[in-house]
Structures are given as C-alpha cells and as structure tokens.
Amino acid sequence: MTTFESEDYLLKTIAQHDALVRQCVAGELSFSEFCEKYNDFYAYWALDGHECDEEERILLDKHNRLIEPHRVIAYEILGKLCSDEDAKLDSYIKAGRFGSVEAMKRLANVRIGA
Questions:
Q1: Average pLDDT estimate for 66-70
Q2: Is the model's pLDDT at 14 over the cut of 60?
C-alpha cells in the first residue's frame, strides 16, 4: 500500500471526516471551520484511486458506499463553492456557483456513513 497504512486506517480516516460533516451540520463547527478541518478530504486522500496501488483500489471499491458521500461533497458542494459576496452575482449564479449558506443546505442532505 502506498497511500493508506491499512484498511483499518482508511476506515478510521473516513469516520473522522464523517464526524466533521455531522459536526458542521449540527452547528458544532462553522462552515469555515469545517472547510479548514475537512481539508478537501476526497482529493487530498486521492479517494478516486488515481494515486493508489492495486491493493488500495480494491479497498476503495470495497468501501465505495462510505467514500461516495465525500465525492459528492468534493464535486457537488466544495467544487461549486464561491465567496458569499460572489454568490449574489448573476454570473456566478448562472455558472452554478453558490455561497456558504447554500453549501450548508447541501451538506445537510449528504448521507454520511450510509
């Protein structure tokens, strides 16, 4: 393995990031605190498998149901996020961008630990 120490380590890391999502949705973390601690988890850990060896890709496939919510967060929420000021601009709205208020709504709809 090159990215993860073990399957257990992968599962613990996912659980830690699941907890951050839950804390943010519950109001225990501000959205900006969440973003800082979440640290673009899906991309940072290469959960799409692009940096993994074969053994790790098998683990990612095995635990895809736990990883998928983080893909959604990466691409459908954080990937479309812009500043709250820019979120009011027509050009950003037309481009499908949104600010932290909408991001929080979308984050609350992500099924973590499914």
A1: 97
A2: yes
Distance of alpha carbon 85 from alpha carbon 98, whole angstroms: 10
Q: Which residues contact 52 (CB under 8 A, 6 or more apart)?
A: 2, 3, 46, 60
- Residues in a beta bridge with 81: 98
CB 1 within 8 A of CB 55: yes
Query: SS3 for 81?
Result: strand
The rounded distance, in Å, linking the Cα atoms of 31 and 17 is 14
Separation CA 13–CA 55 (nearest Å): 17
Return the half-sphere exposure (C-beta side, CA atoms, 13 A cut-off) of residue 28. 7
Among 44-53, 64-73, 77-86, name the one with the lowest average pLDDT: 44-53
